[in-house]
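Q: A reviewer asked whether we had any structural model of the full assembly, not just the individual parts. We don't, so I'm hoping you can provide one. Inputs are below.
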Amino acid sequence: MSTLKSLSYRRPEIAGLAVALLLAFAFGSANARAADAPHLGKPVSEADIKAWNVTILPDGTGLPPGNGTAADGVKLFDTKGCSLCHGQAGKGGVANMLVGSPSLTAPGISANKTIANFWGQPTTLFDYIRRAMPWPTPRTLSDDEVYAICAYLFAENKLIPADEAMNAQTLPKVKMPNHDNFIIKFPNRI
Amino acid sequence: MRKRKASGAPPLEPVARNGLLHRRALLTGGVVFAGAMSTGAALNGAAAEPLKDPEWSLMPGEVTPVLQKPSRFEAGVVRILSNPKGEPRTQHARAPLQMLDGTLTPNPLHFTILHSGIPDIDPEQHRFVVHGMVKQPLEYTVDTLLRYPLVTRKHFVECGGNSAGMFSNEPVQATVQQLHGLVSCAEWTGVPLSTILDEAGVDRKAVWMIAEGADDLLVSRSVPLKKGYEDAMIALYQNGERLMPGNGYPMRLLLPGYEGNMNVKFLRRLMITDQPAMTFYETRNYSPLLPDGKAYRFYFVQEVKSFITKPSYGMSLKGPGYYEISGLAYSGSGTVTKVLVSADGGKTWGNAAVEGPATPKAFTRFRMSWRWDGQPVTLTSRAWDDSGAVQPLRADFVALRGVTKEPVKSPYAFPNQHYNSLTAWGVDSKGEIQHVYA
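A: Here is a predicted structure for the entire assembly that you could use as a starting point for your response.
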């Protein structure tokens, strides 16, 4: 981080601090909090954080370059160990069922929530596989491999055609059947 | 004296059927029960053996350890693990709430849930960053945060799936620990999150913050920025000592009253955004399914709740006479103001003593004096908070949220989330206690 860059960030803060001090002097201590703040955080840039910034937003923000298809994904699902926990073809095992769309109402309120019957956003799948899978060696898949496994799981769930490639443009557009079935419990707290 | 609301206001003496007593009567000794007199006389008569010095009173004691452990006679007061062999799945450690009293959960007994083990984090190397829609992304170390003005607050943390066994269509026979052990209360000390947000300079268009931990799954949750300015904290201390590893050492996000999983442990990143990330945990696990197939999303609040810890399933009463009924009440939307206790399954209620000072979003201990006449009774409790929230009666709760179609076999299963209705204990004439629905 260059000194010049830090300075350009700090200048408005110094101006703001002067205003806060003036206000504090004029109106008592209520406005003095900003001036009292320790400011011990080290200024960094988004580039410095890039390796940690794995969040994918529902609009696709954060999706990396890359590409993958179900044909590759089906192989990776076995070779990367996904099937060990999620069962052959993602039918379920010690970990969640990923393929299939059982009824959400027939078994009552404890129905099995799957990608096809429950998940509201396609981006959640990429985000979670990339950050957390495969257990126990997370973040060892390439972005192409994550796209391929997503393509495989979407295709197996009949949410995309078997030959459609997943990438930063196509993945956020996958239509999730359960998208509109959520009720925000506490909207006034957002 | 607090003014009682007209609805459900119990008379002072007697407070309710089946032996519930007004506490003041006992504390002042103003009321004498014939039955109690005779029981007392019998007990005195039984103490015929003369008292002697036991062996521990005749020799020096043990060497003082640097770190104290409970008495060996308390060795059974431990957490229950859902996954004792550490298989590759989530590990839930439930707190033995029925064996504790007061309102603070000792750190070694505080509940924990870990989806992929406890990370072994070196506090010297741990980094926390705030970035996204801010004027200046900032990076903090544990040492820098420890230099900030710290605040101490007492708050409970509860898993959104706590008490999930209560969604069973038939009562699961299980202890308080097994049914409700995924909640604990501690005194947390840390940096108000608003201080950090102000330093980074949050964009006025921002609405959310995406919190992320340093565990191998990088557990991530979207939190309304509003909560960040309200009472959120980066917690560094738990009951006066640094956080337990399983509770998020060296730092965790503390969101008082909000679903446990949102209180991201091992906090390493806060990304400020204008939209939620719709992470796995918020859109799948903690989106409770409703009977019609729709689901709640962003069920932030752990709503007002209470349960009797003593007596409860797994204990038995040693004959008729005096007992104290005691339990925990808490609310993620405020301060507990009132707890009613019933000994007849909810037909009549008595006002329990709520130990003060009750504080917001924290455990409150309630107590009710009780003289059991040896007949079958059903004990239950119901709490109110200062936001106007009331713990829902079970019939009302079930009508809205539903129950399973098959009985739940294990108290460790999660058929659904966010249960805050009543818990009832049926005492039979032998003093044995069953979990019942009332």
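A: Points you may want to mention in the reply: Chain A has two domains: 3-47, 70-173. Residues 1-33 of chain A have pLDDT under 50 and may be disordered.
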